[in-house]
Amino acid sequence: MVLWWFYLNSMLPSLSENYAQKNYAQLWNMLWISLKILLSFALLIFALGNLFWTEVISIIATPEYLHPIWSLYSSLDAFRIVLWVLVFYFLSLSFIYMLIASERQWILLWVNIIVTAINIIWNIILIPYFSFYGAAMVTLWSQILLMIITGSIVLKDLRFPRKYLISMWLSMLWISLIYFIFVELKTFVLLDNIASILFFTPLFLVTYFWLEFLCSKKLFIK
Prior knowledge:
Elements: H1 2-20, H2 24-51, H3 53-60, H4 63-66, H5 75-101, H6 105-155, H7 162-188, H8 193-216
Helix pairs in contact: 1-2, 1-5, 2-5, 2-7, 3-8, 5-6, 7-8
């Protein structure tokens, strides 16, 4: 999550400069490209997390986290929700930085206050009944709400360019196909936890980035 803050922080001066100079065409182009890049990496993390969630939890925790005795939910349940949180978090980052670049931080402040208040209220309600699983669900709802509010503010007067929309749909298609292929491969190539991650991850990355390059290279050509 921090990595993509660094990425957008590096873009913030250019975003602010284009906004100050009213170079809106370049500004929106940077927004679409950022959305595309962030979605591509969010989908990658989501797919790899789903592919290796059992291995990851097994490596960093004891078996009780996978098969709890005194809880209805395991760490895998929370891990799945956190992966969804990352997808919406990555997308909302672009909208947040557009608000900062356009000097509308005061809107962002009120949005964060509202989302935080809703988050606290729902945590108080759900945690006594659903424990950490309830807290994870509230985090997901809060992130979706943040993305919807900030996205509606930034995009209210814009049309989403078709080429970026098509590219994003292709990213979701590629990642889905690759994910299901590797799920099947894992059933035939039986390895221990660490060996499975080390063996399949490079193959997954090469396949995904190759397909992403093929369907996205035209986006970066003026």
